[in-house]
Specification:
Layout (H helix, E strand, L loop, with lengths): L13 E3 L4 E5 L2 E5 L5 H7 L6 E2 L5 E2 L12 E4 L2 E5 L10 E3 L17 E3 L3 E4 L3 H12 L4 E4 L16 E3 L4 H16 L2 E3 L3 E7 L2 E6 L2 E5 L3 E4 L3 E3 L12 E3 H10 L7 E6 L2 H12 L3 E7 L9 H10 L1 H17 L3 E3 L2 E6 L6 E6 L2 E6 L2 E5 L2 E3 L2 H5 L4 E3 L5 E3 L12 E3 L9 H18 L8 H20 L13 E3 L4 E2 H7 L3 H8 L12 H8 L18 E2 H4 L5 H6 L22 E6 L3 H11 L5 E5 L14 E2 L16 H6 L2 H15 L10 E5 L2 H15 L6 E3 L1 H7 L9 E5 L3 E2 L2 H15 L2 E4 L5 E5 L2 E6 L2 E10 L5 H6 L8 E12 L7 E4 L5 E4 L4 E5 L5 E2 L5 E2 L2 H14 L7 E12 L5 E4 L6 E5 L3 H16 L14
Parallel strand pairs: 2-8, 9-16, 10-11, 10-17, 11-13, 17-30, 19-26, 20-21, 20-26, 21-22, 34-35, 34-44, 35-41, 37-46, 44-53
Antiparallel strand pairs: 1-12, 2-3, 4-5, 6-7, 6-8, 14-15, 15-16, 18-27, 23-24, 24-25, 28-29, 31-32, 33-51, 36-40, 37-39, 38-39, 42-43, 43-44, 45-48, 45-51, 47-48, 49-50, 52-53
Length: 949
């Protein structure tokens, strides 16, 4: 090291870009160089712990490329900034703890800005840049978007804080590629965040903090890859990071996180890093290579590597010789067992062919391959496959085309293949995209030959470095860093991969499930196609809420609704086993169906609960968990007419009470919180409307009143100033729908309900006093049938020629990053579509009936204008949302009824019972209990709720 007091590397031939300056970290003055990141400046001072989780665990840099969101700090009051991406600047006030009131992260862009390049390239690594160059040379107008601060990607990244008198070969290749792009007229936007892809010509991004809609004629995806994390004991300790993260610190930033480093995992990238650290003055304790030591027969593989790429083959030999000269042992057939330390990494326990060893080290670099960044391609609906390494890869043709017209996917972001494969395929795809634009760019044989050589080298390389995959983690090891979920919790959850994720919240944190996807698959086992991986959701990266919200009045919201396509057939791909006959068949495994089955089974009824997918994974777990008691803010039409709506009001308070009883039975709180609900008014007319509404509700037993500005400020001081008042209902609240549904499922199993996942009912026919139930693989008999299929209830009723007074809608929910607890009540806004709450985790959940859409195959999809408009309404109610990020949004089919529940026996088909309701989450258990009581002969639901009534 050049300076024993810091961790800056010895760097002959390099000079800083400018004089040193300072910023503060938790009050401590930190020196920094122009161009380096906050993480690099802190690492140079030996500061590896950047924050603590809600559980008090220390965290630091892990992936080093902004994918894991683990190195979060607060910068000048702005919460959740990534230290590995943020450039240091003079005078920054950086803190490890989040603020009580976060400062705004961005300014809104009220006017929609659009750009329409011929070719939009996402990603400025080797694949993206080479494709852009070829298309631009052919005459295309090319725009490249890249999240980093400079083009080149991970492999060809430039120096950050220094200039080199004599750059090495890798830096020279990066400089040359950047120069070629500039000469070809390629426009590159750095620091660009692509947060959504809704169609080939509808790509949403932030450029310089501005929200921009891209409408390209052709789209080329080259987002690169991130390193596959390996979950093992102690892997979240500061000092444990990916090889790419440590290489970014060392190669671009010229710092090391520790004086002694251990490098482990699989592949030649580890050898390169170890050599770079040694050259910079760092002690490398060892390189642990998971592949077995090559035997005498490996010379044929080495020869193939040399013939395909002699320079790369020589690089590998040179790395091994340099490490031998430096006295760094390369231990083949070795792997890390555990990371140990008090607060930061201090020791690493490893298994080697000679037995277990313990290495003293302040940093560990781990590399076990790459995971393609397929989120954008998946969001567009492109076909994917499981690759040899067990990760998702985008399926393309020889020139990089996906099965979506006008969309290409290349480089490591489609299928990991290394920089030379990416460069060659980039040239091929760039010319193919130019031809699709009508330009002259014929294929070149030399490009195909280069691609063939690069792939031959990769095949030989990974034959030489073939290693067993990392073992699935033990039960006590964290599998999901974001949500602090242990592997044992996932295994205990049971069910499918999706069910386990929803039960534990694994994969639902800031990284969006990108980092833990492979680990979850290792734990839960492989699933067919994409089923084992979390679905991509907009935003694909956490994005400042204020940056993407946009004024969209309710009239614009209504324009987003479209008639849904014809419903899918009630079929599954693989027929489930035909169950034995049952007394009662409940169709639908959501909250209503589970509750009906639960209360019947407790009375000794033989109940079979059938769900075409898996119980508890439909709309019930896709809602926001509001416990509504007042009429919704847009559901009171001022007529005051009695009828089903009035009858339904009385169900709210006992429904909330029943949820609390069920929670007590499970021994869990289910995060139930009844701290009241507000409906805001900002004009005298709306305040008068609320007075009429609350009078209507009080006459029917609901505790509702209108409060003034002072009382409103006391209840919710962070709401926007200037509100004239609100209606207040102390009985309302919220809960966690994931935990609530899981609890109902456990209670149903405990009560003896027979669960039949994957059971698709394709026909119902009256047979004696019961029904013959037809399935794809056979039939069975049910004494009576309960239609609790939620959004699909119309399809079940149609099997017997019945129509229900309901319509299908697709509604969205938006979840933000966490903030300090500031909002306790549930919030709506008079005559506007908004539902806003803050959960016990600090996240804000935003809903209120903004629509999504159904694809022709019945899948629910998000609409970009609905996300933007919903967030805008929420931001007008709660200005502090400008200081948080949107983590994810989701859409799901839901029920709309212009009346109370449809509850009771069909007047046309004895023994067929319907249980359908709006406000299904709040009312679900109560509706289920009411129907169960009717089936048991203990009363009848109110006549106003009767089917056909």
């Amino acid at each position: 090291m050049s300076n024993p007091r810091t961790m800056r590397l010895h760097s002959p031939g390099l000079t800083p870009l400018g004089p040193e300056f300072t910023f503060t970290f938790d009050g401590r003055t930190i020196p920094a160089l122009p161009g380096e990141t906050v993480a690099a400046a802190l690492a140079a001072q030996g500061l590896l712990t950047l924050r603590h989780t809600a559980e008090g665990a220390p965290r630091g840099v892990f992936c080093g490329m902004g994918a894991c969101w683990d190195c979060l700090v607060t910068v000048d009051g702005r919460a959740g900034e990534r230290a590995c991406q943020l450039k240091a600047a003079p005078g920054l006030d950086i803190r490890s703890a989040p603020p009580d009131r976060p400062a705004p992260l961005a300014e809104a862009t009220p006017e929609e800005e659009e750009r329409a390049p011929d070719l939009l390239v996402v990603g400025a690594g080797p694949a993206g840049l080479s494709a852009a160059i070829e298309a631009a040379r052919a005459g295309a107008q090319v725009l490249v978007l890249d999240e980093r601060d400079a083009p080149g990607g991970q492999y060809l990244k430039p120096l950050a804080a220094h200039r080199a008198a004599r750059p090495d070969a890798q830096h020279r290749r990066g400089d040359a590629l950047r120069a070629e792009a500039a000469a070809a007229g390629v426009v590159v936007e750095q620091g660009a965040l692509v947060w959504g892809a809704f169609a080939r010509d509808e790509v949403a991004a932030l450029l310089g903090g501005r929200s921009v809609l891209l409408r390209p004629r052709q789209l080329l995806l080259a987002p690169g890859a991130h390193e596959r994390p390996v979950a093992l004991p102690g892997w979240t300790l500061p000092g444990v990071m990916t090889t790419g993260a440590l290489q970014t610190l060392a190669r671009a930033g010229r710092v090391s996180p520790a004086g002694t480093v251990l490098v482990a995992g699989n592949g030649p990238l580890n050898l390169q890093l170890a050599c770079e650290l040694v050259a910079g003055g760092v002690k490398v304790a060892a390189v642990l290579e998971a592949a077995p030591r090559p035997g005498p027969g490996a010379w044929r593989t080495v020869l193939r590597m040399g013939l395909a790429a002699p320079d790369l083959a020589w690089d590998g030999t040179r790395y091994l010789l340099a490490l031998r000269r430096a006295g760094v042992p390369v231990l083949w057939g070795s792997r890390v067992l555990e990371c140990e330390g008090e607060g930061t990494l201090q020791r690493v326990r490893a298994a080697t062919p000679q037995g277990e060893r313990v290495f003293a080290a302040g940093a560990l670099a781990l590399h076990h391959g790459f995971v393609p960044e397929t989120g954008l391609a998946r969001a567009l609906g492109a076909r994917h496959r499981i690759g040899p390494a067990g990760v998702l890869e985008t399926a393309t043709d020889a020139e990089g085309r996906t099965d979506i017209p006008g969309v290409f996917a290349i480089g490591d972001g489609a299928a990991a293949g290394g920089a030379r494969v990416a460069l060659a395929l980039g040239r091929i795809a760039g010319r193919a995209a130019a031809r699709a634009l009508g330009l002259v760019a014929p294929p070149r044989p030399e490009d195909a030959a280069a691609l063939q050589r690069a792939r031959a080298f990769q095949a030989a390389l990974w034959t030489l470095f073939a290693a067993p995959p990392p073992a699935a983690p033990a039960d006590d090891v964290l599998a999901c860093r974001c949500e602090s979920v242990a592997a044992g919790s996932l295994r205990a959850a049971g069910g499918s991969a999706m069910a386990a994720r929803r039960a534990t919240r694994a994969g639902m944190g800031l990284c969006g499930g990108r980092l833990c996807a492979s680990t979850l698959r290792d734990i839960l086992g492989p699933a067919t196609g994409e089923a084992g991986f979390a679905a991509p959701r907009a935003p694909l990266r956490p994005v400042p809420a204020a940056a993407i919200w946009r004024p969209r009045p309710d009239a614009a919201r209504e324009a987003l609704y479209a008639d849904p396509p014809a419903p899918r057939a009630w079929l599954t791909a693989t027929p489930a086993p035909v169950p034995r006959d049952c007394a009662t068949l409940v169709i639908g495994g959501g909250v209503v169906g589970l509750s009906t089955a639960l209360f019947l089974a407790r009375e000794g009824e033989d109940v079979l609960l059938a769900d075409r997918n898996e119980p508890g994974l439909g709309a019930s777990t896709a809602n926001a968990g509001s416990l509504h008691v007042q009429l919704l803010a847009y559901a009171f039409d001022d007529t005051g007419a009695p009828g089903p709506l009035a009858e339904a009001l009385a169900l709210g308070p006992p429904a909330v009470a029943l949820w609390k009883e069920l929670a007590a039975e499970t021994g869990e709180s289910l995060s139930i919180r009844t701290e009241g609900g507000l409906i805001l008014a900002d004009t005298p007319e709306l305040l008068d409307w609320l007075r009429r509404k609350t009078a209507f509700e009080r006459a029917r037993g609901i505790a509702a009143e209108v409060i003034g500005p002072a009382e409103l400020r006391d209840l919710a001081p962070t709401l926007r100033p200037g509100l004239l008042g609100a209606s207040w209902c102390p009985q309302e609240g919220q809960m966690d729908p994931l935990r609530g549904t899981a609890a109902l499922l456990r209670l149903a199993r405990r009560a003896g309900v027979r669960l039949a996942p994957g059971l698709a009912v394709t026909g119902l026919a009256r047979e004696g006093a019961g029904y013959r139930v037809q399935l794809p693989g056979g039939s069975f008999r049910a004494g009576r049938v309960v239609n609790a299929a939620g959004p699909h209830a119309m399809q079940v009723a149609a099997l017997l020629g019945e129509a229900l007074p309901m319509r299908l809608v697709v509604q969205q929910v938006i979840a933000t990053s966490a903030a300090a607890p500031t909002l306790r009540p549930l919030v709506q806004w008079a005559r506007r579509h908004l539902s806003l709450k803050q959960s016990d985790t600090g996240q804000f959940l935003v809903g209120g009936g903004w629509p999504g859409r159904l694809d022709a195959d019945g899948a629910a999809r998000l609409l970009r204008p609905a996300i933007e408009g919903n967030l805008w309404v929420a931001g007008q109610a709660l200005p502090m949302l400008a200081g948080v990020r949107v983590l994810r949004a989701w859409a799901s089919p839901n029920i709309h009824l212009d009346r109370g529940p449809v509850l009771g026996e069909s007047p046309r088909h004895p023994g067929l019972f319907h249980a359908i309701t709006s406000n299904g989450w709040t009312l679900g258990p109560l509706v289920g209990r009411m129907l169960a009581e009717a089936l048991l002969g203990r009363g009848r639901p109110p006549a106003a709720f009767a089917p056909g009534g």
